[in-house]
């Protein structure tokens, strides 16, 4: 949640309306997102099919937690039945730096949750619709257990911001990983424009290691085969400012000697017309280059697709994250359910590995959406 910024608006709407999408059709017949409407979630509700967009997951004690676009949190003991928890931010604790900055609210988009130096770090993004007027911030908490007396989200402010006409990338969809070699966390992020960026963070994970990295291009994945070429034009349906470099939602995962870079190709949030899909490349160094199965650099159009819609269960799938819990690897993402009119649903599957060390989808964990 973790994009083209008009489609982000749709992602936020999907979350706030608990999975029920609202669209209007213009004279050309294309789907356009309506402005987000206020929605009060039912705290404590239980479901086996939570409506989420851009899910990331963490485990503390015997409980799993899923964070997603819209500031929402779900908890579960078994990855099957999920309970809605209080949101991270509400009207009483919205980060002050977001106010008056030209961003869209409520909530946040496409978070990442990361445990580091004895505390949880929640990276989140916000943006203006249709532009790369965007920023990524971070909040901290000693625990994810809302029943604990230590439970309190404390915003630590902005990490990086992008501006139309000044930065040819987009500061949304953050994902953070710790690198044992550099003893520092690294953050990859981005949506459309020039592609996925990679920056080194300070040792505490709260700031850029080098403030000048906020104005540098360090692209690790793009659909553009020529990095020096101008941004490709929009497809005519989505905002012109975002262009047509349809890639977003990066996520880094370490397995053995490789860092695996997952990204999402093409378009989310367009109902039954969505064609989102998950691709991957790998590198022995966190800074890349990340190569796909054919040896093509992801910074020059590479990426091996490992999961896409089948038009039977999901029209499209994407914005994934990946984890190891209890020595089992998992792939977590959202899918646009065929059975539920393209509502965005949480999907968790085990992640297996072929003989050459490439990820493949294994056993499905979350139940399939109910049929009509």
Widest sheet: strand ordering = 3-7-6-5-4
Count of all domains:
1
The largest β sheet comes out as:
5 strands, antiparallel
Give the name of the CATH architecture. 5 Propeller
Tell me how many strands there are. Answer: 23
The whole-angstrom Rg is 19 Å
Per CATH, the superfamily is: Glycosyl hydrolase domain, family 43
> What would the average pLDDT be, to the nearest integer?
87
Q: Can you count the helices?
A: 1
Named CATH topology? Tachylectin-2, Chain A
Tertiary shape: globular
- The secondary-structure element order is HEEEEEEEEEEEEEEEEEEEEEEE
Helix fraction by DSSP (H/I, runs of at least 4): under 10%
Proportion of residues in β-strands: 35-45%
Distance between the termini: 26 Å
Report the uncertain regions: 1-39
Query: What's the CATH C level?
Result: Mainly Beta
Characterize this entry briefly.
The protein has one helix at 5-16; strands spanning 23-25, 31-33, 46-47, 56-60, 63-68, 72-76, 82-85, 109-116, 119-127, 134-141, 154-162, 175-179, 184-189, 196-200, 219-221, 247-255, 258-265, 277-283, 304-308, 314-325, 328-337, 344-353, 359-364. The protein has one domain: Glycosyl hydrolase domain, family 43 (Tachylectin-2, Chain A), CATH 2.115.10.
């Amino acid at each position: 949640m973790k994009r083209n910024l008009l489609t982000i608006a749709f992602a936020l709407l999907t979350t706030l309306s608990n999975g029920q999408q609202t669209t209007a059709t213009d004279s050309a017949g294309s789907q356009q997102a309506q402005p987000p409407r206020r929605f009060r979630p039912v705290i404590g509700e239980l479901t086996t099919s939570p409506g989420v967009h851009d899910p990331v997951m963490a485990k503390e004690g015997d409980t799993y937690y899923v964070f997603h676009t819209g500031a929402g949190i779900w908890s579960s003991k078994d990855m099957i039945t999920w309970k809605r928890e209080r949101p991270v931010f509400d009207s009483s604790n919205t980060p002050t730096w977001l106010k008056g900055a030209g961003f869209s609210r409520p909530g946040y988009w496409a978070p990442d949750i990361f445990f580091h130096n004895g505390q949880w770090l929640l990276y989140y993004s916000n943006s203006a619709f249709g532009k790369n007027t965007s920023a990524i911030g971070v909040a901290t908490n000693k625990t994810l257990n809302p029943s604990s007396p230590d439970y309190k989200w404390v915003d630590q402010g902005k990490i990086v911001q992008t501006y139309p006409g000044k930065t040819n990338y987009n500061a949304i969809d953050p994902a953070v990983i710790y690198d044992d070699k550099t003893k520092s966390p690294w953050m990859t992020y981005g949506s459309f424009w020039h592609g996925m960026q990679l920056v080194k963070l300070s040792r505490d994970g709260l700031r850029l290691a080098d403030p000048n990295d906020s104005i540098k291009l360090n692209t690790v994945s793009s659909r553009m085969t020529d990095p020096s070429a101008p941004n490709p034009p929009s497809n005519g349906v989505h905002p012109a400012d975002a262009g047509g470099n349809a890639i977003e939602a990066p996520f880094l995962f370490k397995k053995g000697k490789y860092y695996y870079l997952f990204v999402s190709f093409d378009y989310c949030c367009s109902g039954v017309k969505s064609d989102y899909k998950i691709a991957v490349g790998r590198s022995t160094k966190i800074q890349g280059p990340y190569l796909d199965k054919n040896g093509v650099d992801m910074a020059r159009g590479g990426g091996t697709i490992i999961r896409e819609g089948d038009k039977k269960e999901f029209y499209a799938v994407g914005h994934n994250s990946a984890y190891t819990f209890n020595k089992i690897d998992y792939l977590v993402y959202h899918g646009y359910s065929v059975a539920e009119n393209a509502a965005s649903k949480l999907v968790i599957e085990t992640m297996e590995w072929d003989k050459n060390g490439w990820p493949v989808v294994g056993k499905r964990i979350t139940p399939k959406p109910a049929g009509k």
